[in-house]
Design a protein that fits this description.
The structure holds two protein chains of two kinds. By secondary structure, chain A is mainly α. Chain A is about 80% helix and about 0% strand. Chain B is mainly alpha-helical. Chain B has two domains: about 300 residues, ABC transporter involved in vitamin B12 uptake, BtuC; about 160 residues, Arc Repressor Mutant, subunit A. The chains are: A mainly alpha, B mainly alpha.
């Protein structure tokens, strides 16, 4: 195998070409990573998955009505669909004897199916197709008109979105922290946990919608959860977890672009593969929860027991 | 025993498959697009490819319903979702094995990948502090991404020639089902149905109470593994027709609808299987109407519509049925309260035994303490059941004989209950009215007779008002 060709060449010949793709991957994964920490903490990771599937009909309807892939109408359509999904899940779950998992499964699959049907009926002669739903359109960014630092408009928007999420988290750090860990304590401190929950869901919907065109509907869940899951094996402090998950976002988008170039695959799934690889590495070597340290500890325990 | 019917059914299916294999145009290759024409073709079953698709759909619809029932009652709906996404790299590997759409290689690859996925979920949960939801999400998306990359790499190497076969695994296309696929489906379905029939009790026990299952010596881990294996199998056989992304819906939604409709597990299994078959056929039908439409989403929508109907109109738990039931009960209560008010006015005028007396509507509204409009609604309903008659223009009413009887029954229940509470339960006599106001509508004849006997057939209530006699005396 020619190592030089795999590891070095892509960065020599395509560096400029892939700068916008890498930047977009970084912004998407960073925004997702930040909010994903709270999803993992609150054990509602799969609501993120449900929302990312459910925005599809909103996007498809906005697209069919306006006939363009321009931002605003699609964004509104997606946001409405995303919020509708959370409401449906809540209604199905609280007003029937179904459990939450079944309610999530039914809601997102129905909305997603509607979206897929709409796209396959109307999308044949346009550029919103099922490939976009699966792989995202990140790789087409380099062909777009750059507006700032060699980045196209969508990437700049995504950067702003990631920044907004970061600022919101810094501003409401305490509220989010308390209501995630102990809703009743939060209530006694004058924070409304339900309000925090719904605001979090709204921000989540915005982030998912922003990520949709780049990474599609299905892979978003990985960008949301992998960074937080990886960093929670390394630290117990939330702000450290946040920083570590940003690091995870950086490494996985770098590795993703690299994999995409080396293997000739779309960047979005490649970044997920890179992120999953990072997760696997940390799972094995993490000092406290890693498989190796777990094995060492159980061996030591056995020895002490025998002695 | 249902097992008796299975052998002849299978024989019929096998014959159909063989008959359908007479080389003919597959659904996807048809050129005509007129929906009516297509619908006619569908219902005449003229198309051998369609027959194959339908047989396949019926079969995996039934298994998905059966296994889905266990999933839904065990609250592991999203495990099905994770497994179904995790099979994708296995599909790609199976494809790489022979560089063709060999159903057996793909079945093996996908099943192995699906089981690996559910194993990793369990391993993450057991060795780290990551909870189930995140573990499911990690496995689902990571495996799926690996699968997507592999598929794209296969496409890069292989050109466009056989991509269509692989693409159908994502959103489903019943038209690509060949007789080989349907034979594989039949095999898997047979074994799954047998498993459910033979191990029904065991699966039910571990589904509802694992600790208990352990304590009576059931091999819980083995049964769990077996169940997961067959779950993976049935996800995989439905994969081509429904697609990786939506196959979990075919597990969850029919079973959830059945869960709302019936109360017993074995009923739920049959109902879920029927709904699964119905939605699968519905999906085949609608995707057959247009050209190049994916089958999976239509199957999911079919299942979701059934679920919606069940959610709204299920005989006991449906939203609409419950609302109707509440409304009719509210109306009954309101009717009875109006009758009671009329009775009390008559009683106060000391003409209680003269039902012919006219009661002014204004006075009634005052006594009943409701708006005229609401009172009129009550009165119109009461007239319809023959309890009151309108006399004169202003809406003034008189009680009929049957109305008087009903009114007496309510007043009697009320006053007996008040007396019962003061005498037998030591309530203060000024605290009993509100309670009696509620219960007067729901006391049964037998209960009233019993209370009356316990109180030794009283004549007056704690407030000194007479308790009207049973026959209306």
């Amino acid at each position: 195998m020619n190592l030089h060709r795999i590891f070095v060449e892509p960065w020599q010949s395509h560096a400029v070409h892939y700068w916008p793709v890498f930047a977009m991957a970084l912004f998407v994964t960073a925004a997702c990573a930040l909010i994903g920490n709270y999803l993992v903490l609150r054990r509602i990771s799969l609501v993120g998955d449900a929302i990312s599937h459910s925005v599809l009909p909103g996007i498809a309807i906005a697209f069919i009505m306006t006939g363009s892939r321009s931002g605003t109408p699609m964004f509104i359509g997606a946001l409405v669909a995303g919020v509708a999904a959370t409401v449906f899940i809540e209604v199905l779950h609280s007003r029937s004897r179904l459990k939450q998992d079944a309610a999530i499964g039914i809601t997102f699959s129905t909305l997603f199916a509607i979206g897929v049907i709409l796209i396959s009926i109307h999308g044949a002669h346009t550029d919103l197709d099922l490939d976009c739903v699966l792989f995202g359109k990140m790789d087409f960014l380099s062909g777009r008109e750059p507006v700032f630092l060699g980045l196209p408009g969508v990437a700049v928007t995504m950067a702003a979105l990631a920044l907004c999420v970061g600022v919101l988290i810094i501003l409401f750090y305490k509220e989010l922290l308390v209501s995630s860990f102990d809703p009743s304590l939060a209530a006694s401190m004058g924070i409304n946990p339900r309000l925090v929950h719904y605001l979090l869901m709204a921000v989540l919907s915005v982030v998912v919608v922003g990520a949709f065109t780049s990474v599609g509907a299905i892979l978003v869940i990985a960008m949301l959860i992998l960074p937080a899951a990886t960093s929670c094996m390394l630290s117990d402090r939330l702000w450290v977890m946040m920083l570590l998950s940003l690091l995870h976002a950086l490494i996985s988008s770098l590795g993703g672009v690299h994999l995409a170039v080396a293997l000739q695959v779309p960047t979005a799934p490649a970044s997920v593969v890179a992120g999953a690889g990072l997760f696997a590495i940390v799972w094995v070597v993490s000092p406290r929860q890693g498989l190796i340290s777990l094995w060492l500890r159980s061996r030591r325990g056995n020895r002490e027991l025998a002695a | 025993m249902p097992a008796r019917y299975i052998t002849p059914l299978l024989a019929v299916f096998l014959l159909l498959i063989l008959a359908a294999d007479a080389q003919a145009a597959r659904i996807g290759e048809l050129t005509e697009n007129d929906p009516w024409q297509q619908a006619r073709r569908f219902f005449t079953f003229a198309d051998p490819g369609l027959r194959l698709g339908l047989i396949g759909a019926l079969l995996f619809g039934a298994t998905c319903g059966l296994l889905g029932s266990f999933i839904v009652v065990r609250k592991m709906a999203l495990i099905g979702d994770a497994i179904s996404h995790a099979v994708l790299p296995g599909v790609a590997l199976g494809f790489l094995w022979s560089m063709d759409k060999d159903p057996l290689a793909i079945l093996v690859g996908a099943t192995v990948a699906g089981l690996t996925g559910s194993l990793v979920v369990e391993l993450i949960q057991r060795t780290t502090k990551i909870k189930q939801d995140a573990a499911l999400g990690i496995v689902l998306a990571s495996f799926f991404a690996v699968g997507l990359c592999m598929i794209r790499m296969i496409q890069n190497n292989d050109g466009a020639s056989r991509i269509t076969g692989l693409k159908s695994y994502l959103f489903g296309d019943v038209a690509v089902l060949g007789s080989q696929d349907v034979l594989t489906i039949t095999g898997v379905v047979t074994v799954t149905v047998l498993l459910v029939i033979l191990l029904y009790r065991q699966l039910l026990t571990i589904g509802f109470d694992r600790e208990f299952a352990h304590s009576i010596g059931l091999p819980v881990r083995l049964l769990d593994g077996l169940f997961q294996l067959f779950l993976a199998f049935s996800i995989v056989v439905a994969l081509q027709a429904v697609g990786v992304v939506l196959v979990s819906a075919l597990l969850i939604t029919p079973a959830a609808a059945a869960y709302l409709l019936v109360n017993r597990m074995h009923h739920m299994l049959w109902v879920a299987a029927a709904i699964g078959m119905f939605s699968a056929v519905l999906g085949v039908f609608f995707s057959f109407l247009g050209s190049d439409l994916p089958t999976g989403p239509f199957m999911v929508l079919g299942a979701s519509s059934v679920f919606l109907v069940a959610y709204l109109f299920a005989p006991r738990h449906g939203r609409v049925t419950r609302w109707l039931r509440h409304r009719s009960r509210r109306r009954d209560v309101s009717n009875e309260n109006t009758l009671k008010s009329i009775y009390r006015i008559l009683e106060r005028d000391a003409v209680g035994h003269d039902p012919g007396k006219v009661v002014k509507i204004d006075r009634l509204a005052g006594e009943r303490r409701v708006a005229r409009a609401d009172l009129n609604k009550d009165l119109r309903r009461l007239r319809r059941i023959g309890a009151v008659k309108f006399s004169g223009q202003g809406g003034d009413v008189t009680l009929t004989g049957s109305g008087l009887k009903q009114a007496q029954r309510v007043v009697r229940n009320h006053r007996l209950w008040e007396l019962y509470l003061t005498n037998e339960a030591d309530y203060a006599s000024n605290h009993v009215h509100d309670d009696a106001e509620k219960i007067e509508h729901f006391l049964s004849e037998e209960k009233v007779a019993e209370i009356e006997r316990q109180l030794d057939y009283p004549d007056v209530d704690p407030h000194g008002q007479p308790i009207p006699g049973r026959g209306g005396a």
